[in-house]
Amino acid sequence: MVSQSSPRGNGLFRAALLFFFVGVLAIVAIFVVAATGHEPGLVLYLIALACPIGFLLGIAFALRSGRRVRREGNQ
């Protein structure tokens, strides 16, 4: 039987990916700015915090989807 994932679950996954990749891009930007001899701004450091937030959202998605699959398997 094919399980249909809820739109909310897909939204959580997409948000996790978005936050993670925005954070990774900010980290790359920090290294690029530093390599040019300038000081990276506070804004880049704050945007880089999106990376661990995306990672945590991804873990939350994995835990929720695993619980959903386990619950559907018991029925």
Q: How would the blueprint of this fold be written?
A:
Elements: H1 7-35, H2 42-48, H3 50-74
Helix pairs in contact: 1-2, 1-3
Contiguous low-pLDDT stretches (5 residues minimum) are: none
What is the mean pLDDT? 87
- The total count of strands amounts to 0
Order of helices and strands: HHH
Fraction in beta strands: under 5%
How many angstroms separate the termini? Answer: 12 Å
Class computed from helices, strands and strand pairing: mainly alpha
Largest sheet: none
How many alpha or pi helices?
3
Helical coverage, percent range: over 70%
User: What coarse outline follows from CA principal-axis ratios?
Assistant: rod-shaped
Q: Could you tell me the radius of gyration in angstroms?
A: 17 Å
Written description of the protein model:
The longest helix is centred in the N-terminal third of the chain and has 29 residues, at 7-35. With 75 residues, the chain is mainly α. It has three helices and no strands. The protein has helices at residues 7-35, 42-48, 50-74. Helix 1 runs antiparallel to helix 3.
Structure summarized in a few sentences:
The protein has 75 residues and is mainly α. It has helices at 7-35, 42-48, 50-74. Helix 1 runs antiparallel to helix 2 and helix 1 packs antiparallel against helix 3.
Features:
75 residues; mainly alpha; 3 helices; 0% strand
